[in-house]
Amino acid sequence: MGNTKSSALSKELLEDLKSNTKYSEAELCTWYQSFLKECPGGKISKEQFEGIYASFFPDADPTAYARHVFRSFDTNADGTLDFKEYIVALHLTSGGKTLQKLEWAFALYDVDGNGTISKNEIVEIVRVHAPSFFITVDEIKFSPCIMKLN
User: Fold this and answer.
1) Which of 48, 50, 115, 147 stands 20 to 30 A from 69 (CA)?
2) What CATH architecture applies to the domain 1-97?
């Protein structure tokens, strides 16, 4: 999905990321060098991502939610995040345009990737994220908002 394992970003990828994220050329080059230090193979595995994600939630087990977040960013569905997918993920979660965030949120909730979001998919995402908010599964399933969904 974009880059190779070389120590320099391709001009094509650099231009693509500059035009589709808020990051400058210098920032992208710095991020790329850091990315290669942490991921010498040029990719982040699902397991690595889960570990990184877990470090943000030390008092919970966000593994299931992290899998959904990973899936939503793994746009080529190869089971890894390359540098482009990683930077787009950073951009969307730390800024990004409203439409981009909405598209990402839709992809997150569209668990089966069929282009629609069902009540079960909403319950699934909220269920795996609920422990972060100290909400029980029953509180989710029987919430007035969820009950109104078809």
Assistant:
1) 147
2) Orthogonal Bundle (1.10)
